[in-house]
Amino acid sequence: MISDDLRERALGAYLGLAVGDALGATVEFRSPREIQEEFGVHRSMIGGGWLHLEAGQVTDDTQMCLALGGGMIAGKGWNLQRIADALAAWLRGHPPDVGNTCRRGIRRYLNDGSLEGPPSDWGAGNGACVRNLPVVLATLDDEEAFVHHTLAQAHFTHHHPLADAGTLALGYMLRGLLRGAGWSAARQVAATLVAEHPEFCFDPYPGRSSAYIVETLQTALHYFFNTDNFKDCLVGVVNQGDDADTTGALAGMLAGALYGVQSIPHAWISRLDPGVKRMIHAQVDALLAWNPSPQPTQDVGTLCLQSREG
């Protein structure tokens, strides 16, 4: 049975992702100075930005999450091809924004049917990390499935050891936060990530927030661990600009899982796209109740070893 606390944290994570995405999209690709000159501090859900979005409209970050989650719950058990088909259908719908690495991976699948791209420097982006929340929610009671499914969906478009490490680490943080383990447990996961991959060091904060998985996580983790509420965390992150929709989405996931859905400002939730909110509520319930049947295509231990060795 799903506890009320778990459901509130799961909704906080998923809605937090969408809120961070929509809030950050307004200032994506701007510098902190440019944001300050125009907004002072950007904290309102107003849309706009280079994509000319409506207020509360989300980008590819939330859309890919919903596509992946929809592919998971459309049938019984883990089926990467079904997820690939869901992402392909999303791409065919001409979304307003698609990351180059994600587009490349989906087009490869459409061309040759392959479910895994080759290792590549292009794979060190943040696209696989930001869409992994449905996997986390569905595998809370099965760590092996969490690792396998995370790496399988990641390698569909992003095949790089740093993307693997960052995506798994964020997933482990979310797993702990959703169970109520709290800030300290998440901080320990971050410390382990930095110890194993020093590139991710975020203290002192380097101040860069690009789509490179290292800089994306440095920004999200810096503000998550140096604030004590959802709003301050999100405002700090998105005002760093650059890939602000994705850093906002990742920080929103973490903060929403820690503080719960009630911590998300009503002014932000109320402006979020109503259709997106309905889909998130439906997916949270379905994913938490998901009962996967193990269908690994490769030994989980081998995948873990590959992600560590790079």
How would you describe this protein?
It contains 16 helices and no strands. The protein is an all-alpha fold. It has one domain (4-309): Orthogonal Bundle (ADP-ribosylglycohydrolase fold). Residues 293-310 have low confidence and may be disordered.
State the CATH topology.
ADP-ribosylglycohydrolase fold
Give the N-to-C terminal Cα separation: 39 Å
Mean pLDDT comes to 93
Number of DSSP helices?
Answer: 16
Q: Any guess at the CATH architecture?
A: Orthogonal Bundle
A few lines on this structure:
This protein is an all-alpha fold and 310 residues long. It contains 16 helices and no strands. It has a single domain, classed as Orthogonal Bundle (ADP-ribosylglycohydrolase fold).
List the helices and strands and how they pair.
Elements lengths: L3 H22 L6 H8 L20 H14 L6 H13 L7 H13 L14 H4 L2 H6 L4 H13 L5 H18 L4 H14 L16 H13 L4 H9 L5 H16 L6 H6 L2 H15 L11 H10 L1
